[in-house]
Amino acid sequence: MGVIGVVATMKVQAGKEAEFEKVFKDLQSKVKANEPGCLQYDLCKSKSNPQTFVIMEQYESQEALDAHGKSDYFKAAFPALGAVLDGAPGLEFLDRID
Amino acid sequence: MGVIGVVATMKVQAGKEAEFEKVFKDLQSKVKANEPGCLQYDLCKSKSNPQTFVIMEQYESQEALDAHGKSDYFKAAFPALGAVLDGAPGLEFLDRID
């Protein structure tokens, strides 16, 4: 199996954008420090809708993606992110074609 | 201005997946050979819908994104891609937050 991509789309409540960015960037720093199998974990903001954020992710394997979701820091960030989101994240799981 | 991300979602007509991949990978090789300002141009296929492809793209500047769209090989690939797509591509333009 090859590289796995994830495009996660998150709509944030109006006025909560800065709080979302703060919580997410703390999570991002922990992912980059602890997950060599995470090849990409980029936070992006929509140009057309400032409340919509998109995370572009890639993992070297399904095991690396599973480890990402099971980490203590990921589980800890979830309630803080959930508190500022407007609805559930949209998750698209992908196989990269090399 | 910082890095620009693009998530392009393309639904391909049933039975045309291999043709789409062939045309896209030829375009991808030309992008990688000619566009130093294109930082990422990854073709991915949805795990949940085998007719849905997602291209994860990043450009170092708006100028690099503009140059991408104006290249002769991009313009040449467009009719061939359009012939196998099921509807217009979905394009999300993003600012990467570093």
UniProtKB/TrEMBL annotation, chains A, B:
Mind listing the GO molecular function terms for this protein?
monooxygenase activity
Q: Where is the ABM domain?
A: 4-93
Q: Where is the signal peptide, in residue numbers? A: none
* Database matches in Gene3D superfamilies: 3.30.70.100
Question: What keywords is this UniProt entry annotated with?
Answer: Monooxygenase, Oxidoreductase
Q: Which domain of life is it from?
A: Bacteria
Known InterPro entries for this protein? ABM_dom, AI-2_Isomerase_LsrG, Dimeric_a/b-barrel
Task: Respond yes or no to whether keyword Oxidoreductase is given for this record.
Answer: yes
PANTHER family hit by this protein: ABM DOMAIN-CONTAINING PROTEIN, QUINOL MONOOXYGENASE YGIN-RELATED
Q: Give the protein's recorded name.
A: Antibiotic biosynthesis monooxygenase
The protein's organism comes out as Tepidicaulis marinus
